Automatic annotation (TrEMBL):
<keyword id="KW-0808">Transferase</keyword>
<dbReference type="Pfam" id="PF01501">
    <property type="entry name" value="Glyco_transf_8"/>
</dbReference>
<dbReference type="GO" id="GO:0071555">
    <property type="term" value="P:cell wall organization"/>
</dbReference>
<keyword id="KW-0472">Membrane</keyword>
<dbReference type="GO" id="GO:0047262">
    <property type="term" value="F:polygalacturonate 4-alpha-galacturonosyltransferase activity"/>
</dbReference>
<feature type="transmembrane region" description="Helical">
    <location>
        <begin position="37"/>
        <end position="58"/>
    </location>
</feature>
<keyword id="KW-0328">Glycosyltransferase</keyword>
<dbReference type="InterPro" id="IPR029993">
    <property type="entry name" value="GAUT"/>
</dbReference>
<dbReference type="InterPro" id="IPR029044">
    <property type="entry name" value="Nucleotide-diphossugar_trans"/>
</dbReference>
<comment type="pathway">
    <text>Glycan metabolism; pectin biosynthesis.</text>
</comment>
<keyword id="KW-1133">Transmembrane helix</keyword>
<keyword id="KW-0812">Transmembrane</keyword>
<keyword id="KW-0961">Cell wall biogenesis/degradation</keyword>
<keyword id="KW-0333">Golgi apparatus</keyword>
<dbReference type="GO" id="GO:0000139">
    <property type="term" value="C:Golgi membrane"/>
</dbReference>
<protein>
    <recommendedName>
        <fullName>Hexosyltransferase</fullName>
        <ecNumber>2.4.1.-</ecNumber>
    </recommendedName>
</protein>
<dbReference type="InterPro" id="IPR002495">
    <property type="entry name" value="Glyco_trans_8"/>
</dbReference>
Length: 533
């Protein structure tokens, strides 16, 4: 093949080698190209070729271990530069040793395993150690530290489980003293509310809040923070629902600590006509749930003794044993339409929250025909707390779940919810809730493990109106990454998690936001040694 370039650089002709007079023309633009430009272009490409040659030669001379010249530029820039690939400097024997499994009892009782990185380095420097010995020592040290870390984490989870599941002696003392006061002091047995205020309990022009709790101190903080931050406390009605054993202490506290002009109602479950007539599905489900949990979980000792599961899985199973997950106070919210047949809208509050703003604007939120106004938990700056989707709560390896729900659908939170009871009564939400609770029991708790939120996510599916995250900040009971200033600026803060603010395991940086609503000079608080920190 021959190449002919015309003097004007306007045509390039290619002749085949066998003399066939077929040619092709490549037209260059009408712009004239000077010989000087052609000369500099050829000079540049010549220099570039020489540079690549020198680079490759110097790199070869440097070898694989040195990296002191320009020849290592390619290695620094990446393994694929200029078409060359570089092998790892780590000997293959190290990979082989580190990938070999080590028996769980292989290190038991051995004193020659390095206990720290300092011991490891000292032992390596002491003698001439080849790559294989180095890998063996490293594997043994890391495995030993992993085993110790796992044991320490499980012990921490167990201690937290015991601490969060037990009733602190201070709270037990408070309940006993208030019960005694109820029996000896007529002022502690007042009708709540007084007779002239009873009509307000069914008046929909008031702001109705519902709190279900068997914890007097926690209920006192919720009530006080609600009323203190309300712009129209005279329009606030707080319905407190408790159980039979806590009714007298709860009545005594709010009789002796009135929150006028707000209206406080204290009522035990057995005072509700609906609750005492016939079978209550939630109570039947709780009884079955308790039997199943005791049969299949084996208690905290059996859970902790499992050597194959990860600590986070063990922590989740321990949390599933918490009494609160089998408490009627936790399940009763699903029966709000029956408990309050005359009310159109209520805001349901958990007892581990603190209210820091006026909540009356919640009644102005357009629910768009939905039943449950809640904050979503899949979006937000805090990726640890606000990263919850349905797959975080439901077991999508079970066909009953996977065929009915989307694992990536956003979850929402209990704790501070607006419930449109009028819209609720037109749905089958309560029946759906009990159906799925029953299915979970039949499947040996394989649809989800704990809590009332998973069946709530299912029952309210398609009935949730998303509200602004300002109204509900979560996670203050299981992490302290939230700053004090951020928590202080939220409308409602929620100490969901094990580290409740009334426990000694509470996070000290966040507890003051809860404690400031307690009068520590009160005679009941003081006599039970309940302190600010």
């Amino acid at each position: 093949m021959q190449l002919y370039i015309s003097p004007s650089l306007r045509h390039i002709t290619v002749f085949p080698a066998k003399g066939f007079k077929e040619f092709m023309k490549v037209k260059v633009g009408s712009r004239r190209v000077s010989y000087r430009m052609l000369f500099y272009s050829l000079l540049f490409f010549t220099f570039l070729l020489r540079f690549v040659f020198v680079l490759t030669t110097v790199d070869t001379i440097d070898g694989e271990t040195k990296c002191s010249t320009i020849g290592c530029l390619g290695k620094r820039l990446g393994p694929g530069i200029l078409g060359r690939r570089f092998e790892s400097n780590v000997p293959e024997v190290i990979y082989q040793v580190l990938e070999e499994p080590i028996g769980k009892d292989e290190l038991k009782g051995r004193s020659d395993v390095p206990q720290s990185l300092e011991d490891f380095m000292a032992e390596i420097r002491k003698g001439k150690t080849d790559a294989k010995t180095f890998a063996f020592k490293l594997r043994e040290m890391v495995t030993l530290l992993e085993q110790r870390t796992r044991t320490a984490k499980i012990q921490e989870y167990l201690y937290r489980h015991v601490a969060s599941s037990s009733i602190p002696k201070q709270l037990h003392c408070l309940a006993l003293k208030l019960a005694n006061e109820h029996s000896t002091n007529a002022a502690a047995r007042l009708q709540l509310p007084s007779a002239e205020l009873v009509p307000a309990l069914v008046d929909n022009s008031y702001f109705h809040f519902v709190l279900a709790s068997d914890n007097v101190l926690a209920a006192a903080v919720v009530a006080k923070s609600l009323v203190r931050n309300s712009l129209r406390p005279q329009k606030v009605v707080l319905h407190i629902i408790t159980d039979r054993k806590t009714y007298y202490p709860m009545q005594a506290w709010f009789s002796l600590h009135p929150l006028s002009p707000a209206i406080i109602e204290v009522k035990a479950l057995h005072h509700f006509d609906w609750f005492t007539k016939g079978k209550v599905p939630v109570l039947e489900a709780m009884e079955k749930d308790q039997r199943v949990r005791s049969q299949f979980r084996g208690g905290s000792s059996a859970i902790v003794a499992n050597n194959t599961e990860k600590p986070v899985v063990i922590a989740a199973k321990l949390q599933a044993l918490s009494p609160k997950y089998n408490s009627v106070m936790n399940h009763i919210r699903i029966h709000l339409p029956e408990l309050f047949p005359s009310l159109n809208k209520v805001v349901f509050l958990d007892d581990d929250i603190v209210i820091q703003t006026d909540l009356s604007p919640l009644w102005d939120i357009d629910m768009n025909g939905k039943v449950n106004g809640a904050v979503e938990t899949c979006t937000g700056e805090d990726k640890f707390v606000m990263s919850k989707r349905l797959k975080s709560y439901l077991n999508f390896s079970h066909p009953l779940i996977s065929k009915n729900f989307n694992p990536n659908e956003c979850a929402w939170a209990y704790g501070m919810n607006i419930f449109d009871l009028e819209a609720w009564r037109k749905t089958n939400i309560s029946q759906t809730y009990h159906y799925w609770v029953e299915q979970n029991l039949k499947s040996d708790l394989s649809l989800w493990q704990l809590g009332t939120l998973p069946p709530g996510l299912i029952a309210f599916h398609g009935h949730v109106q998303v509200i602004d995250p300002f109204w509900h900040m979560l996670g203050l009971g299981y992490q302290d990454n939230t700053s004090f200033s951020d928590a202080e600026s939220a409308g409602v803060i929620h100490f969901n998690g094990r580290a409740k603010p009334w426990l000694e395991i509470a996070f000290p940086t966040l507890r003051p936001l809860w404690a400031k609503y307690i009068n520590f000079s009160d005679k009941f608080i003081k006599s039970c040694h309940i302190r600010a920190s």
